[in-house]
Amino acid sequence: MNIEINLLPVELRPRPPVETKNLIVALLIVALVACSVFLYIVKSSADSDREGMENRIDEVNREIAALQAQARSLTDDISAIKAANKSYDAFIAARIDWGDAIERVQELKPQGIDIESLMQEGRTLEVGGSARQGYGTVASYARSLDNDRRFSLAGIPSLKDGDFSLILAVAPGGGS
Questions:
Q1: Distance from C-alpha of 137 to C-alpha of 74, rounded to nearest angstrom
Q2: Per-residue model confidence as pLDDT tens digits over 2-27
Q3: Strand ranges (DSSP E) for the chain?
Q4: DSSP state, 13?
Q5: What confidence score (pLDDT) does residue 74 get?
Q6: Residues 6+ apart with CB under 8 A from 18
Q7: CA angle 160-166-167, nearest 5°?
Q8: Cα–chain-centroid distance for residue 8?
Q9: CA pair distance 33, 22, nearest whole angstrom
Q10: Angstrom distance (rounded) from CA 176 to CA 168
Q11: Rounded to an integer, what distance in angstroms lies between the CA atom of residue 149 and that of residue 169?
């Protein structure tokens, strides 16, 4: 067992270049500075990311508002087109092709009846002419017109001195 005896006074004894306490304090200071710098960098990065995200959110909100305005405009246009289409469909349904109606009146005319006048007023057609074979022929002609889907008899056929007249209501769309 060796006992070390140091005869040199404390001031002359060899010392380490840095004392342990000072080294620990210096390492703690360096660690605190490094942690502070790291936290500052992380916070700056987070702030930058947050600011970037807020700017992107604002941009997306502006795009959403523009798209909503465009969608409203398109919805209004679609509504206008649907309304125009309904009006057009109603127009087509109410339209009467008078040429076809008159042609059908001529096709259903039996022997012994001569058509001398056709007058249209609104949705009615007045057929006038002469009948050589009496009221039975006129009534038969009126019945055949009434049975056609294009027409409906709007009154009783009249016959006076060989001249007859029929009033027909024409179906919407001309019945075709």
A1: 61
A2: 777 777 777 877 777 878 898 899 99
A3: 113-121, 124-131, 151-153, 158-160, 163-170
A4: S
A5: 95
A6: 26
A7: 135
A8: 101
A9: 16
A10: 16
A11: 11
